[in-house]
Amino acid sequence: MIFTILVASVALCAAGYTAFTLLGGREHGPARAWMGGSLFCLALALATVAPGINDAVDGLVGVPHVSRLIAHVLTVWAAIAVSCMLVYWTRSPESTRRAVRRRLLLAGSATVALAALFLIARTPAAPGDWFATYHRRPPVMIYMTLFGGILTYALIDLARLSLRYATRVTTRPVTRVGLRMFAAGGLISLGYSVTIVAVAIAGQFGIDVGTAWTYVTMTSQLTGIGLIAAGSAVPGTTAAASAALRRAHDAHQCERMELLWRAIVQAHPAIPRRQPHPTHWWGRGLAWTTSWLGDGRSLSRRVLEIRDGYLQLTPWFDGAVRDRALQLGQRAGMTGSDLMATVEATVVVVALDAKAAGDDPVDTGRVEAGGTDLTSEVVWLGRVSQALARSPVVVSVRAEQAHARAAPANGSPAPSTTSE
Q: Where is the DUF6545 domain positioned along the sequence (predicted)?
């Protein structure tokens, strides 16, 4: 019971995801639609025969065991639908339509034949498995043979086409894994269909096979359906997880640049496409979420906005400030990229202060590009932003410049910012 509900839930979730990708415009085409229809049929078939639900369906229709007929018809259509999906993937456009029509004709004929045999059998309500209880009746024997035979054909077709297409997919390993899971699910489900045919034939010859075979059919059916449903979900969920991780990484990088970006755009309100959120925790969380939903667009936009701010600050970049920050950083034991990020952060923040205070441009310094592409530029600006937030060198040089700016107004000499 629990296993049935679990497998039905997996199939339903996979069908829902497929429908979401179709309606959301992410993926189009009849193959995807056939996949969604197949998974929906599988989920509905398992739900129809679940204890409690089957009795409700029988009572609603007013025909004993009609839930079994519904489940069997849905199973046939589910297997044929998967086969049609794979036909679209493996055949040429000229032969696809003919192959799909042939399979749909088979499924439609099987539906009519199974319904007719079910009505002819007239099996009264009884507890237990319908096949196990009535498999000796001739109409039920024929029903079982027909259902098992069609399902066997569809499952072999499913496994064959899945393995054929898997050999063609050389650049998408996750899709290849999903196709192999399809094939495995089809082959395992053969234990269900072949056993049904064997029991029906044994019944025609008066051989008593007992009821132990029902456990074989149940196990192989649920395991096979579970593999098929999981195989259909593997490519999509893997791609979605990869995209989510990528977005989370981009959002983290945006967060690392937040302080530098905030300082730039607050001094130049015309630059950003969105204004900074508040600095308290929920504001920062909203900024992270906005970056995540941006799918990388916020990341590149943030780099461009910071660089636009740099261009407008260029007249206030001071070479003396750069030399002073370099001296203090080396004295503090900084080297390499950490030292240069600290120097850049110092030059930028002092330029922001000078522009805000109305100082005359000096235009004696410059800031080199930190990277050769978007990825390296993002890493570099994140490092500059962290230096702006944490480096004592930035605080020290900024304080010196503020004191030098205030000294003339107080009539005292300004301290030198050149090397000591």
A: 251-390
